[in-house]
């Protein structure tokens, strides 16, 4: 009997820093799509984002490790290893390196809203199925985006990803779930006094109301910076 292929979700991101929202959407996608695991691709640098305010890759990777604990989530800096920066190049390289795996690209609705600006985005769409996770404040823009107009004929239910024998791309799954309001921007803003030396400003001490995971996240960034 042929063993079934491993199904891996790929969540690319800046993770500046990683937060509980990343963990939650990954666990949710794993469950909804029947994924065996999710790899977090901690980006050396999003081609569309400014470098200013971006913590070093090693520090962001540490924050990802803190958030991924005890879950089937694997934080990686594989784009730095592969020497790729654009998603289209990364996905091609990953498929070459892991020909027996099946991959699904995961992203939040904010990324779907901007997807038409990514290099060779239609080619990305033809490379592997894509699952988009709802995100508060971005769903309307995502639904009216140029990429969504193109994807409309390729919309499929989550069950079609679970049925591993019927694999094709383009395929777009829209995943709805309880909105998660967390974002790296909000964390950076809320803890600006504390975190700014890492990300470019002054340090005033750790905020007492910071959730444990985020505290660990920022502690790991600080340790990394001081090393
Ligand atoms: N709360 C969330 N709900 C849905 N998707 C999310 C959420 N947070 C992050 N994502 C998705 O996770 C991936 C990586 O996100 P990223 O590392 O940029 O975090 P972020 O919180 O969006 O950061 P920033 O606020 O700095 O833009 C992206 O596809 C993004 O859409
Ligand atoms: O390839 C592109 O043109 C491209 C443009 C913008 C973003 N991306 C990727 O999208 C993912 C999410 O990025 P971010 O910064 O929004 O977390 C990350 O893997 C980036 O490398 C890719």
TrEMBL record:
Its EC number is 2.7.7.18. InterPro entries: Cyt_trans-like (IPR004821), NadD/NMNAT (IPR005248), Rossmann-like_a/b/a_fold (IPR014729). GO terms for molecular function: nicotinate-nucleotide adenylyltransferase activity. It holds the Pfam family CTP_transf_like. It catalyses: nicotinate beta-D-ribonucleotide + ATP + H(+) = deamido-NAD(+) + diphosphate. Residues 10-171 form the Cytidyltransferase-like domain. Pathway: Cofactor biosynthesis; NAD(+) biosynthesis; deamido-NAD(+) from nicotinate D-ribonucleotide: step 1/1. Keywords: ATP-binding, NAD, Nucleotide-binding, Nucleotidyltransferase, Pyridine nucleotide biosynthesis, Transferase. Catalyzes the reversible adenylation of nicotinate mononucleotide (NaMN) to nicotinic acid adenine dinucleotide (NaAD). Belongs to the NadD family. NCBIfam families: PRK00071.2-2. This is Probable nicotinate-nucleotide adenylyltransferase. It comes from Erythrobacter fulvus.
């Amino acid at each position: 009997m042929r063993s079934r292929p491993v199904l891996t979700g790929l969540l690319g991101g800046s993770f500046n820093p990683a937060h509980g929202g990343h963990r939650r959407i990954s666990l949710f996608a794993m469950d909804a799509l029947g994924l065996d695991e999710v790899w977090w691709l901690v980006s050396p640098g999003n081609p569309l984002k400014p470098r200013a305010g971006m913590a070093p890759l090693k520090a962001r990777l540490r924050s990802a490790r803190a958030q991924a604990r005890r879950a089937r989530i694997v934080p990686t800096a594989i784009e730095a290893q592969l020497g790729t920066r654009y998603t289209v190049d990364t996905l091609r390289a990953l498929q070459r390196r892991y020909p027996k795996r099946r991959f699904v690209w995961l992203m939040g609705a904010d990324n779907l809203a901007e997807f038409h600006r990514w290099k060779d985005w239609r080619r990305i769409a033809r490379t592997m199925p894509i699952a988009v996770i709802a995100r508060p404040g971005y769903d309307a823009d995502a639904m009216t985006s140029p990429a969504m107009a193109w994807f409309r004929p390729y919309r499929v239910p989550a069950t079609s990803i679970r049925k591993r024998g019927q694999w094709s791309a383009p395929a777009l799954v829209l995943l709805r779930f309880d909105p998660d309001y967390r974002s790296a921007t909000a964390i950076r803003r809320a803890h600006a006094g504390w975190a700014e030396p890492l990300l470019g400003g002054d340090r005033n001490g750790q905020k007492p109301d910071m959730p444990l995971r985020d505290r660990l996240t920022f502690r790991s960034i600080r340790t990394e910076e001081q090393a």
